[in-house]
């Protein structure tokens, strides 16, 4: 599976990024993948390669490039409960500095870069994200209805308080919630807000999961949750991008 380390021109400099794509000498639909709060690391590269193996060009930017190239902090190979507080103490200032304005400015640069790569076909793209990256994905899809045909967010902080994101959405949406992140009542309110906005979506709690369940290098990992994630994501992309 071919991979590249790239630099994306933005309004504030150069964002380092990782890309994976099929080795077929063809053009493929593009997918912008936002990492979770821990950022680009081996597990994200592996997920990008796995998705690329299904026929997509997958671009994973370092959202916090303004503070330096990834990895911005030294991460253990396994992020367990005993190291999580210290890791987050270093990450939270970066996350808090990444305002909505920065997310939207960067999204424009990322999509412009993605859609001009020689391996990427014409037509709309998809955006997916994990944890805080799920919120970035939703902001990106809302701001670019002409470019984004599908958006998926997994264990992301997307709730009714973000309902203003939904009114401009034209993309098909999947939200995969951790059981530990949202109650059935809160899920009902969220889905009602999506219904009211006329969004085409699926939104569900993944049984037995806690926040971060897709990430195999953390103690939140849930193998059945990761499988369900692929079982939801791949058909969504196939429906919305297959004809590109």
TrEMBL record:
InterPro entries: AB_hydrolase_fold, Dienelactn_hydro, Dienelactone_hydrolase-like. It holds the Pfam family DLH. GO terms for molecular function: hydrolase activity. SUPFAM superfamilies: alpha/beta-Hydrolases. Residues 16-239 form the Dienelactone hydrolase domain. Keywords: Hydrolase. This is Dienelactone hydrolase family protein. It comes from the Bacteria.
